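Exercise 7. Predict the joint structure of the components listed below.
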Amino acid sequence: MQLSLRIAIVSTLIALPFGIAIAFVLARREFWGKALLDAVVHLPLVLPPVVTGYLLLITFGRRAPVGAFLADTFGIVFSFRWTGAALACGVMAFPLMVRAIRLSIEAIDSRLEDAANTLGANRAWTFLTVTLPLALPGIIAGAMLGFAKALGEFGATITFVSNIPGETQTISAAIYTLTQVPGGDSAALHLVFVSIVISLGALVASEWFARRAGARLHGN
Amino acid sequence: MLSVHVEKKLGEFSVAASFTNESGATGLFGPSGAGKTSIVNMIAGLLAPDRGRIALDDDVLFDSDKRIAVPAWRRRIGYVFQEGRLFPHLSIKHNLDYGRWMSGLAADPKAFAHAVELLDIGHLLDRRPGKLSGGERQRIAIGRALLMQPRLLLLDEPLASLDSARKDDILPYLERLRDEARVPMIYVSHTAAEVRRIASRVVRIEAGRVTATGGTELLSS
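Solution:
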C-alpha cells in the first residue's frame, strides 16, 4: 500500500517538470518534428500497456543498452525494483499529464505574454511569472490525472518489473494476486476500499486546489 | 528621437511606413485596419518587420541590413494596449511594479507615489484586476508602462474600449502624463478629437501607407 503511494507520488513528481516543458513546447512553439513529438508523447495512451512495458524492458532492463548504461554509470537500476515500477507508471501517466497542461497553456491569452515582454521580461521570466502561474489549475489537474493513472497502472508495470511483494507489487497487482488465490477475497476487498479512499481524497484535494488557483487567476 | 522605416507583408495586406518623432507626442491617425497597430508592434518588438530600420536616439533597435533585432524585453519601450492586458493573477501593486522589477530597476518609492498620484489609483493598490472598471484598468496599464521608466511610450487606442464619459475621464490623465512625465509618446487612434488633444504632430496612415505628415491641421481634412 505504502509502496503503491510512493511509486505513484515519485513518478508523478518526476514526470511533472518534463510534462510542463513538453506541454509548453507543444502549446507555444512551432518547430520541425512537432507532430512526431506529439505522437511519441501520446504513444503510451494508445499502445496496449503490455507493449509499453515490454518496450521498457528491452530499453531499461539490466542488460538492455540504456538500462546497462544507467546502472554502470549512475548506479540506477530499474529492473525488478520499485524505481522501475515508478518509471513505468510515469511513462503511462505522461500523456494524460501533458494533455491537461497543454490545454491550460493554450487557454492563456498569449497577449499577456507579449505584454510581459514589453515590460522587460525575457522568455524565461515571462514563463515563470505569467505562463506558469496562469496554467496552475491545469498543472494541478494534470498532476492529479497522472497520479491516478500511476496508482492504477497494472499492465506496463507487471510486464516491466513483475509482481514482487514489497518491491514492485502495486495495489492493483496485489488485488489481482489476491483474487487469484482461494480465500483472498476479504483481503482484496480491504485493498479495494483503501484504493477508493485514496483516489477520492486525491480527487477532492485537486478540485479544491484548482478552484482556489482558478479564483486567484481570474483576478478576484 | 524615434525614427521608423519599416516594411511588412501580412497576408494580402502590406505595411510600408516611414516617420520620425522628435519629442512630445506624435499621433498615428487613420481608420481601423490601416495597419497602425502593426506599426507600433514593430516599434515595440512584438512583430518583426520584413525590411527596414528602427532607431531610438542612437540605439538601433532593428536593422534588416545589419541583421540587428533587439528583443522586446531589451527595448525599454512602454506599451499601453487597447485592452489593458493587466496580469489577472497579480495585485494592482504588483502589476504596477512588474516592469520595474523585470527591467532590473531599484525600487523608487518617489516615482511610484508620483505615478499613483498622477493617475489617481491609490485606492486600488491592494485589489486585483478582475473587478476593476475599464477606466481604472487603463489607468493601471498606463501606470505600469510608465513605472518601467520607458524611453518611449506607445499608446494603442487606449480609450477605444471605454464609453465616451470614461474617455473624457482618462484624457486629462494622458495630458498630465505628456506634460509631467516628459516621455516621448506615440498615440494611436482613429478618433480625431483624441489625437488633437494629445498629439502635436500627426502621421496619417491609410491602407498601410503614410499619406500625410504634419501638425494637427491634418485632422480636420
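Discussion. The CA atoms of residues 81 and 167 of chain A lie 6 Å apart.
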